[in-house]
Specification:
Bound molecules: heme C
Helix content: 40-55%
CATH superfamily of the largest domain: Cytochrome c-like domain
Structural class: mainly alpha
CATH architecture of the largest domain: Orthogonal Bundle
Number of helices: 15
Length: 323
């Protein structure tokens, strides 16, 4: 059955049709409920202006004692997050909030999406959203992409290297279970939080046939930036120290500016320094075409965290966005 419009179509899903198909068997077409199934008509939980609990009930289901309009219920309401889209859930809730004698404001797809987000942030949800296209939903790998299921690098007791792979990406020859891969794993630095990376790493280490212990956010924090800055540091050493010095103090009698404690370098918005690095300025060479966006992101992340500087990481997409 299709409740959601085809991609690109403008008609929103029909909340009443969804209710009839999915809900009325228990809650009745009248919304008055029946036996163990509570009424939705005249139910203040359904018409409440704070819709968080209502949306959560639809997404995740609920069971256990609840008192509604003076009656105790103790049944089980199914979870709908896997069967109905966020748009469908918004439509059916909008319907039950305005049908019968109910008169409450509609619920938008965005409200449902926001409430659904914590689920997507679970390791399994993140893996499905970010990794499964390449590594396969079952971690079996796809053509040119190594399997994560049964992969000894993934389940290694020392998690540093797999965390570093997820944080920084990797390229180059890689042998897994006798097969050689030579692809490019994207960097997730700046796109996933340390907590999300810990959740994904914990998931892939324990999913399918893998049976390794979980990874903490602290381990990601320790392994991630350390490795990231070592990449940036080596680029800095090769390309930048001649002028800015290894100490970041600059030199040349003030011609080469200090990057240490430099407010431009530490600025919350890195656009101006990225523009200088990409396009050059005066004696400062242009690095566009000489360093990849990923390398520029790494070296800028390094100079923003070295010598007492404390500014956020810079991602490859921030570099690519510089005109
Ligand atoms: C298989 C029967 C069943 C179906 C189908 C069902 N529900 Fe329920 N629903 C229940 C039960 C039972 C409860 C009470 C759960 C409890 O006791 O904790 C409930 C509770 C609820 C509540 C919470 C009411 C409150 O006061 O907190 C809402 C809202 C709700 N259902 C809406 C829906 C909608 C919308 C659908 C269709 C998408 C639906 N239900 C489909 C059985 C069902
Ligand atoms: C665009 C495709 C793509 C996506 C998306 C992707 N990967 Fe990868 N991944 C690869 C490729 C290709 C390799 C092998 C790289 C190489 O040959 O060096 C790899 C390697 C890895 C490795 C190293 C395996 C080993 O044996 O050392 C891990 C761990 C990994 N990926 C985890 C993930 C996780 C977790 C995600 C989601 C956050 C993810 N990947 C998303 C393509 C991808
Ligand atoms: C040939 C010397 C030279 C090299 C090599 C060089 N720079 Fe520069 N850099 C300069 C000069 C000179 C300026 C000042 C430009 C101006 O403001 O006119 C500058 C400015 C900067 C700024 C802006 C500082 C501010 O206060 O706005 C940053 C950031 C920077 N450089 C980073 C780097 C990085 C990273 C590298 C290596 C990839 C690098 N530079 C390599 C000479 C150099």
């Amino acid at each position: 059955m299709h409740f959601s419009p085809q991609a690109g179509a403008a008609t929103p899903p029909d909340g009443k049709a969804i209710f009839v198909a999915k809900c009325s068997a228990c809650h009745q077409a009248t919304g008055l409920g029946n036996g163990p199934y509570p009424p939705l008509a005249g139910n203040p939980d359904v018409t409440a202006s704070d819709t968080a609990a209502l949306i959560t009930t639809l997404l995740h289901g609920r069971s256990g004692p609840i008192t509604i309009l003076g009656h105790a219920y103790s049944g089980s309401m199914p979870a709908w997050r896997d069967q109905l889209s966020n748009a469908d859930i918004a439509a059916v809730l909008t319907y039950v909030r305005s049908a019968w004698t109910n008169k409450a404001a509609s619920i938008t797809e965005d409200q449902v999406a926001a409430a659904a987000a914590p689920v997507a942030a679970s390791g399994a949800g993140l893996f499905a959203a970010k990794c499964a296209t390449c590594h396969g939903a079952g971690g079996q790998g796809t053509s040119g992409v190594p399997p994560l299921d049964g992969n000894a690098d993934v389940t290694a007791a020392d998690t540093k290297s797999m965390i570093a792979t997820i944080v920084n990406g990797r390229t180059g020859s890689l042998t897994v279970g006798g097969a050689t891969f030579n692809g490019k794993m994207p960097t997730w630095k700046g796109q996933l939080s340390n907590a999300d990376i810990a959740a994904i790493a914990t998931f892939v280490r324990g999913a399918w046939d893998n049976k390794a212990s979980g990874v903490t956010e602290q381990q990601v924090a320790a392994a991630g930036p350390g490795v990231a800055s070592s990449v940036g540091q080596s680029i800095y050493a090769a390309k930048c120290t001649a002028c800015h010095q290894a100490t970041g103090k600059g030199g040349g009698g003030g011609i080469f500016p200090a990057l240490a404690n430099n407010p431009h370098v530490n600025a919350a918005d890195p656009t101006p320094i990225l523009t200088t690095i990409e396009h050059g300025k005066g004696v400062m060479p242009s690095w566009k075409g000489q360093l990849s966006a990923a390398d520029i992101a790494a070296v800028v992340t390094y100079i923003r965290s070295a010598w007492g500087n404390k500014a956020d990481v810079v991602t490859e997409s921030m570099v690519s966005a510089i005109k």
